[in-house]
Amino acid sequence: MYNSQLPTDGNTAPNSASLNLDAGTFAKNADRHSNERIRQLLKSFGLRTSLIRLKVIDALLTAAENDQPLGVRGVHSHLLELDIPLSFLSVREVLKRLCSEGVIVLNPDKSYSLHPQATAVLYGKQ
User: What's the CATH number where 66 sits?
Assistant: First the structure.
């Protein structure tokens, strides 16, 4: 266990930590799911940016890329897997608000996806 009062050798990472990040994959995901692009999307719909909105839209984009429809429970579970501690009710309310503003749509199978107009704004195909 780390004790901030003990001297260290200058190495801040624990000895057992190993980072296996694929820089290409990270850069690709960062480019596609850029928070700045999602911020611009929210702004174009007249919505303020919030962390939960950014994360919910990012989860829906990831699900769409994997061809995996997500409902409220799916979005909530995805966020919990990413260690984003949001309540189920918070996620549901954000989805309802984004739906009412036309950013996302509720599909017949109770899953959510980006509205075609929002997709066009996000990917610059206006």
Answer: 1.10.10.10
